Each structure stands twice: as C-alpha cells, then as structure tokens.
Amino acid sequence: MKTSTKDRPKPTRMTASKQPAAHEHAHALRRADLAYVRLASSEVARDINRDVILELVRAKQPVARMALARASGLYPSTVSAIVEELIAEGWVVEGGTQRLPRGRRPTLLSLNEDIVILAVDVRPEQATIAVVDLNSRLLSQKSIVLPSNVERALPELIAALKKMREMHPGKSFEGVGLSMPGRVDPVTQQLVLAPNLRWARHEIAGEIETALGLKVEMENEANACLIAEIWSGRLDGVRDAVLVAISEGIGTALLSNGQMITGSGGLAGEFGHVMLDPNGPACGCGRKGCWEMFASTRAAVRFYNEARGEDDLTITGSRLLNLAADEDGAALEALSRQAEYLGRGLQAVTAALSPEVILFTGELTSAWQRFGPIVEAELRKQMLAGPPPKVMTTLNPEFARLRGAAALVLQRHSGYHRTHRHSGPRDRSQAEMTTA
C-alpha cells in the first residue's frame, strides 16, 4: 500500500546495533529515505541497512563481506545475512576470490549485470528510451518523436519500449523508470503539473504497466537527476543541495537537511514558475514572466530570433550551442542572456533554501566553461549574506535524465521502498514478461 505523505512520521535517527548507525556512513540518499522511518521498527532498520549494503557493493565492487562490514559499521553477521538475501533476490552475485597472504580467501561480490531497467526521458515533443544496467551503463538507446496528444503518444511509446526489451532477450527487466517534465504526485503516481506537456491526470504508469507487465516508476526530471547524483556518491556529506534542470522549462529538485523534499502532492520545487517580470512573456502555466521564460532553452532560442529579427523555426538548443561554438554573435548573446537569467532566478532558491551546492543539468552545461561563469557571477550578486553555494554540473548531463529514471527504479525496488512503498512481490520472470 502506498503511504500518504500526511501519514508519514517525522524522520528519526536509529541504529540496528550498538555500533554507529549504518545509514550515517552512507550517501545522502539513505538520509532522504528516513522520511519513511517508523519508530523502533527493527524491520525498518534492517531495510535501511540493506540499502546501505547494496550501495556499498555498487561503490566498491568487487568487494568482500568483511570490507562491507568495516565500511558500514555493521556486525559481520548482519552483513552476511543481508548479502545472502540480496543474492537470493538476484541483486548481487558472487565472483572470484580475494588473494590474501594467509587464511581463507573471501568471495567477492558485485551487482548483477543481468538485471536491467527500461529508462525513459519524456520531453514535450520526443522521448528517449534506453536499457540501463545496475551500474548505470546504457546498453542501448533510441529517440522517438511523440505526438502531442497523449492518447496517440502512449501507444507509440509502449511499442518502442517493447521493441527495446526484445533487443535484450538474455536480460531480466526490473521495471520502467519515467523522467517527466512536470510534477508527479508521490501517492497517485499521476502527472499533476506539466505546463509543457499536456499529459496531466492521465493514467500513464497504469497503461504502461498493463502493456509491459513491469512496475513503472514516475518522477519529475529534476528529482530523478538528483536521485542519480546522490546514488552516484557525488553528494557525500552534503545535506542541502538544489538541482536545476534546464530544458524546455526549468525544473528544480530539493535536498534539505538530508531529506529530499517533494511537498504536498509532489509540487515542491516549482521555482521555474516564480515570476521575474510581471510584464514578461506568457508562460504555459498561465502566468507571465516566469523564471523559465527567461532561463530555459526555449528562452535562449527566443533571444536568438529577437536578435536576428526573424522567427527561425529550425533553431534548437543544440543548434544554438553549435552556432556559439562557431562564434556566432547572436547565439553568444542569446546564451549569455540565458545564463544571466539563470543566475538571477537563483535569488529565490538561495533565499528560501540556502543550499551548500547547486547542480545544473541540461544542454547549456555542455558549454559550461563558457557560460557557467556568467551564472556564478550573477549568483554572487544575488546573495543576501555569506558566500554563494558551490556550483556543479551533473555527471554526463546528456544522459542525466535516463540515469535518473534508472536510479529511481533501483532506489524504489531494491531496498527500503521495496517493502514500505509498494504492495505485492517483485516478479522479474521472463515468462511473465513475455506473455504480458
């Protein structure tokens, strides 16, 4: 049964043994999961420890059980029990042995490369689908054009997913992850706000689940990217961070005091629709002058066309970056304006959340060496007090949303959310997938 946000207890630190709490040794994603912790529950403690061990296997593979015990702070017997459970479920496999000067050679553990995830990056006009393994490697990838009408778009997306799955007959598919350009209700898993994609309130996940026989997980694109960054370990020790996703719009994901913040109905973080200019361009949300109307890829294209005095419908964000690389004056001006507005809009973000780190992902980050300093200079101007946050770009921004979609499935299916978010057992049987 899915848990309503209003029924979730306040986060509480807890330990599974007299040693330091295992989750305190883990990455921030584990702390984010503590929003679901129930007081004095040994079951919850076990599941959090399971999350920790699985992540340590991913980070240190191939790795021995004793090394996991040292890294996690858990008793060796606790680690062994968790490892055996992960092996039985197929998440972890045993490999070779570690050569030691004396004594018994320990067996090394790794993630199971035969388990894969169908990852989908949905955009207003197209979708990119990929098969991603547990180590975040993209095994195959394809982009398809999507009709604007969801009634037509979903069957085409489902057909493409089926073909992609058929390309990997020897793999075991764990689920489907959808990175969406809008806000997703964490309880109903419905798209509740998507000004640039007219799919709101449609049973997207349900239709895909029925057609493919796989569990579907949906999340806002920025949230998915932040989960991937946390999962990768790049935010170790960071408790307050904001991720800004730059695409057709502007999306933000929030990590505050070690907790991922989704808010009521999953609507937290819509800084892209904070008004910068009441007389600015009309936004898809129905208002005027929103941040995304000045700092998104669409805004940069509009700036370019305004500078040239014409409406060139062939210009895209990628083409604009190519023109800038060739020192096209209008393109450089347009992207510089976009970067300036990105920094300017961060005033609301820093005032509200005071993050230690701000991450950026999206097409503009491919030219961050040139335009990033403009963002950072404007950010410094906007600070109320103290030094500005550290600015970073995501790993492999081109694939950030796909890796985020895959990390979303892995997070929700492999550990704590496995028993505390979803009902019913997981079933990765090839037979069921074939007949679905």
Throw out a few tags for this protein:
alpha/beta, Nucleotidyltransferase, domain 5, five-stranded mixed beta sheet, 19% strand, globular, disordered N terminus
Give the averaged pLDDT, no decimals: 83
* Helix-strand sequence: HHEHHEEEEEHEEEHEHEEEHHHHEHEHHH
Structural Rg = 22 Å
Give the termini separation. 23 Å
Structural class: alpha/beta
Q: What's the total helix number?
A: 15
CATH architecture of the largest domain, by name, is 2-Layer Sandwich
CATH class of the largest domain: Alpha Beta
| Approximate shape | globular
Q: Please tell me the total number of domains.
A: 3
What amount of the residues lies in strands? Answer: 15-25%
CATH superfamily name of the largest domain? ATPase, nucleotide binding domain
What does this structure look like?
The protein has 436 residues and is of the alpha/beta class. 40% of the residues lie in helices and 19% in strands. It is built from 15 helices and 15 strands. A 5-stranded mixed beta sheet has the order 6-5-4-7-10, sandwiched between helices. A 5-stranded mixed beta sheet has the order 13-12-11-14-15. A hairpin with a 3-residue loop joins strand 11 and strand 12. Helix 3 crosses helix 4, helix 9 runs antiparallel to helix 11 and helix 11 crosses helix 12. The longest helix is centred in the last third of the chain and has 25 residues. The protein is globular. The two termini are 23 Å apart. The N terminus and C terminus are likely disordered.
Explain the layout of strands and helices.
Layout: H1 28-33, H2 42-60, E1 63-64, H3 65-72, H4 76-89, E2 92-97, E3 107-111, E4 115-122, E5 126-133, E6 138-145, H5 150-166, E7 172-180, E8 183-184, E9 191-193, H6 204-212, E10 216-220, H7 221-232, E11 241-246, E12 250-256, E13 259-261, H8 292-295, H9 297-308, H10 317-325, H11 329-353, E14 357-362, H12 368-382, E15 390-393, H13 400-414, H14 416-420, H15 430-435
Parallel strand pairs: 4-7, 7-10, 11-14, 14-15
Antiparallel strand pairs: 1-3, 2-3, 4-5, 5-6, 8-9, 11-12, 12-13
Helix pairs in contact: 2-4, 3-4, 5-6, 7-13, 9-11, 10-11, 11-12
